[in-house]
Design a protein that fits this description.
- With 81 residues, the protein is α+β, with helices and mostly antiparallel strands.
- Helices cover 23% and strands 25% of the residues.
- It has a two-stranded antiparallel sheet with strand order 1-2.
- A hairpin with a 6-residue loop joins strand 3 (47-50) and strand 4 (57-60).
Length: 81
């Protein structure tokens, strides 16, 4: 998809791509320059380990969207193709 860079250097990610990547407003992303092109990735969530229940659990430091059965099914379908 084609987009433009504005005078402030901002790039608009088209809606179809935002939806495909499940991007939300304000969500951190990583942009890197690799082999002559830009790659955009969702930044990994920062977590801390809580073992108050007797076993370690990774707990996100910020709000993250809920993991729904629909997201799991879509992800499985995409990886099986």
């Amino acid at each position: 998809m084609r987009t433009t860079i504005d005078a402030a250097g901002r790039v608009v990610v088209p809606k179809a791509l935002r939806e495909a990547m499940r991007l939300r407003p304000g969500q951190p992303i990583d942009i890197v320059f690799v082999d002559g092109h830009l790659e955009i990735e969702v930044s990994p969530a920062s977590v801390h380990v809580d073992d108050a229940q007797g076993f370690p659990i990774a707990v996100p430091d910020d709000d993250v969207p809920p993991l729904t059965i629909e997201v799991v099914r879509e992800t499985l379908d995409e990886t099986r193709r």
